[in-house]
Amino acid sequence: MQYWSLTDPGCVRTQNQDAYDVQQLDRNTLLCVVCDGMGGAKAGNVASAMAAEEFVNHVKQYYHGSMGREARDQLLEQAVKQANFAVYDQSRQSDDYYGMGTTLVAALIHSKGVTIVNVGDSRVYRIDADGICQLTVDHSLVQLMLQRGELTAEQARFFPGKNYITRAIGTEPTVKCDIFHTDLKRGDSLLLCSDGLTNLVDDQEILFEIVHGVSKEHCCQRLLDIAKNRGAPDNVTSVLIQL
Question: How buried is 87 (Cβ within 10 angstroms: 0-12 exposed, 13-18 middle, 19+ buried)?
Fold first, then answer.
């Protein structure tokens, strides 16, 4: 298993409010997390960094390789609760931090497959011989409108309120997360990313760069370059894993 990662403030913002972490828990287990903070110049980066740290620390403390599927699900759910509590509690301590929050998407890649947890609109994609597949479902206004048939996929790409998310870490005392499962086989790739990438680079472009790019090692940089060539108004973060 190999992985590469990159985060960048983009072309407009001076501060990077994204955060990510990648931890090798044991020989067969990798934990990856991406958070995209919100809440103003002083707070977004605090929320994302705190959520990522709290989430990772909780998983590292309680994970063991003999866990079954249900136990892994519960572990990630509890880690989300811990991250949410930490960010929400901090937001109540200072006016500068009031209302801050962050997305959180994470993948636990283990010998039996991948367990994914998601809050917000950061995403996980699987890239394999069949193409590219978005594994997470955005918690966003535009996703709700798509599900209701109020927007087409093409309209959704340019919808003015597409960045309005319906769930976030730290904005409420409790938060609900989604859990997903998938298998990976040798040669498959997994991509975690913030919406600073997916708002500007579509799925087929991501697929092309990962499958046909010169090297996996520089794939995150190539995806960033595409986003920056299109103005990159938001921070851009990606973590690419290949089996």
Answer: buried
C-alpha to C-alpha distances, 164 to 104, 123, 156, 202, 233, nearest whole angstrom: 15, 15, 12, 19, 16
Helix (H) or strand (E) holding 145: helix 141-147
Domain ranges of the chain: 2-242
- DSSP 8-state assignment for residue 165: B
Is this prediction's pTM over 0.90? yes
Do residues 102 and 237 make contact, with C-beta atoms less than 8 angstroms apart? no
Place of tokens 């960048």: 8
pLDDT tens digits in sequence order for the chain, 243 residues long: 899 999 999 999 989 999 999 999 999 999 999 999 997 656 999 999 999 999 999 999 999 989 999 999 999 999 999 999 999 999 999 888 998 999 999 999 998 899 999 999 999 999 998 999 999 999 988 888 877 887 777 777 777 767 789 999 999 999 999 999 999 999 999 999 999 999 999 999 999 999 987 788 899 999 999 999 999 999 999 999 998
CB–CB of 36/236 below 8 Å? no
- Report the distance separating Cα 239 and Cα 147, nearest Å: 28
Residues 2-242, CATH architecture: 4-Layer Sandwich (3.60)
